[in-house]
Amino acid sequence: MSNQDVPESDACCTPLVREPLTEDWAGDLARMFKALGDPVRLRLLSLVASHQGGEACVCDISDTFDLSQPTISHHLKVLRQAGLLDCERRGTWVYYWVVPAALRQLSAVLLVEGSAADKCAEVTA
To answer: What order of strands is seen across the sheet that includes strand 93-98?
Structure first.
């Protein structure tokens, strides 16, 4: 099962505290979280998501890192394989954008409504 196979209503309404995850969905989420566990990939995702127009050419983000182009491409590939980014080749460049459904799944599964964490966040805000 891929993150696109999880019904939209399930992705938005099934945080960990309400019911256990299915084995397939847990596997998909684990791949996404694992991909984000690397600081370079987390920054890449952020750079793409915050880029003007919601998409970024690899040429726009490569200079941000002190890494080789093949290393940047590898990290982008990991994010794509995890279902967090999608891309399209245009001429000699590849353009990337965030998959909104994947981000919704990650945030929804961690949502804890009315929890002590929410109350702590309100107090510190």
So the answer is: 55-57, 93-98, 85-90
